[in-house]
UniProtKB/TrEMBL annotation, chain A:
It comes from Enterocloster aldenensis. Residues 15-256 form the Thiazole synthase ThiG domain. The keyword Acetylation does not apply. CDD domains: ThiG. Pathway: Cofactor biosynthesis; thiamine diphosphate biosynthesis. GO terms for molecular function: thiazole synthase activity. It catalyses: [ThiS sulfur-carrier protein]-C-terminal-Gly-aminoethanethioate + 2-iminoacetate + 1-deoxy-D-xylulose 5-phosphate = [ThiS sulfur-carrier protein]-C-terminal Gly-Gly + 2-[(2R,5Z)-2-carboxy-4-methylthiazol-5(2H)-ylidene]ethyl phosphate + 2 H2O + H(+). Keywords: Schiff base, Thiamine biosynthesis, Transferase. Its EC number is 2.8.1.10. This is thiazole synthase. It is an enzyme of class 2 (transferase).
Amino acid sequence: MTDKITQTDHDPFILGGHTFTSRFILGSGKYSLDLIRAAVEQADAQIITLALRRANEGGPANILDYIPGHVTLLPNTSGARNADEAVRIARLARAAGCGDFVKIEVIRDAKYLLPDNTETVKATEILAKEGFVVMPYMYPDLNAARDLANAGAACIMPLAAPIGTNKGLCTKDFIQILIDEIDLPIIVDAGIGRPSQACEAMEMGAAAIMANTAIATAGDVPAMAHAFRLAIESGRQAYLAGLGRTLDKQASASSPLTGFLHD
Amino acid sequence: MSNNKNETNVFNKSILNTQVRQDLEMERTDHMAYLPDMEVLDSGIDRQVLSMMESYDPASYTADDVKAALNHDMRGPEDFAALLSPAAQPLLEEIARTAQSETRKHFGNSVQMFTPIYIANYCENYCIYCGFNCKNKIRRAMLDPEQIEKEMKSIAATGLQEILILTGESRSHSTVPYIGEACQIARNYFKVIGLEIYPLNSDEYAFLHGCGADYITVFQETYDSGKYETLHLSGHKRCFPYRLNTQERALMGGMRGVGFGALLGLADFRRDAYAAGCHAWLLQRKYPHAEIAFSCPRLRPIINNDRINPMDVHETQLLQVVCAYRLLMPWAGITVSTRECARVRDNLVSIAATKISAGVSTGIGSHSDEIKEKGDGQFEISDGRSVDEVFHDLLARDLQPVMSDYIYV
């Protein structure tokens, strides 16, 4: 037991050549800016996403003024409807001093906010060549994930459910396929509504969790950030510990059906 | 077509004064006929909207229909119809709570702030309820580019990053190149530029998009063709189908977002709100990338007719309409204008609206003291709070003011 705990203590999360200890990527949208610092602290988050479109440098309600300096910024390209727009927003983010990390969001569906995998692959290819640490948000499709990996993505960010729905792991089986088949960190993004769902995704072998709405719409934002942190850590530890055997409908028989065989 | 010249075709009698009564007796053109140079679309959405409105009978819905609509995860026109019906009114508290929950899910506590800038008030239309109408004797003005810049500079100094440029509906005064120049000036001061101008063809929208504008709002006023005909006596705006297809032409021209609205109080507000919602809903299906927004203006008094009122659309009915829009399209933006007072606006953004104007004046040249020749406003505003006041009032309600929510790329 002690060995296993030691294992999680030395379980760095490596992303695009950068090392993190936290596996919780926190969103900064949909809640009051003056709660961001407390949420970051309670989440123990080292990466926080921000929509570049919300930046208002030098003006009031500028989100950049509220993010603690030690946290890695992960600007996203929300608002982009195609690869070209995503690339331009990513470049603007870098020019604005937001660093090299970028989360690609290409969405041309206002109702469900589902990502466009094809355009996301195109943007990933361009930005990876420009030295960005590209983190693409995508619909969990194995072929698209392979294309993203080949295009130079630093990780794959499949959605668990449509953004903001808090519906949990609706795409669980397909995320598991990505975890099993793609040699990049799989970060479950969008749709996670409860700490228990974050924990389950981590138990499956997800490398990290990105969550926003579940925390932003909670009664107590910092407290929910803390709850997610505990769940993510717990799920990771369970994954590293190796989940125990689960019984299916036909539990192991004490007298095997094949017990009569003598050869 | 037949023109109904008597007054019975006007629902809202408060609009009528001596001049209007006389003018209603004049011969009028066919309001369904396109004028030369108007782009004709045959997408069918206009017909679908009118057909849906035609078959909408608000009185046929029951409380059970309303409850069923509230229980649905995704709602369609049939749910929307129930939510707008008289049967929904006793359930308004429950409706408002569900609407608030949907708003929080999609927008969190964010509320976008913006202000309108009226750069001209010349108008060639005779809309009998509007302060800008060509027959109304008001001070007309049109800002030149230098004055536009002064106004925008003053507005930008308040911290706002989003601006809505408005003109009266006069192609000959406020030409498309003139509006384009205003957009280009605005690009130097603001991140988000919207337009509320006369309807254009798709290539003109493409031009203005290239100048920096990326969303447009056009109110249909009323979707009831007969009432529309009686309310818009002359000018380009008289052409009902051209106005009805405006949002689609704007999307074809590359605009990111389009706004819809019926002027509540002109005619049967339930049927008008239903048509506006169906219009947006149908266009969203055809253009899934489009960012949809609703405005919920109620009729207001104007200069030279202070009797105009929104008839049977009281605050209760306004809230019902706002919530119904929210529940039909939870992802859509909803704007509340300064036609409403601070109390109503602050409560609406706490429940379902997502965008609020501040520091508003509907007059021409009213943001800068340096501009001496000012033009009169379109209507009387009810909320004169400054940007700073609205900002802090939102914070006090645990709402997060958002100055910028888009990057023009």
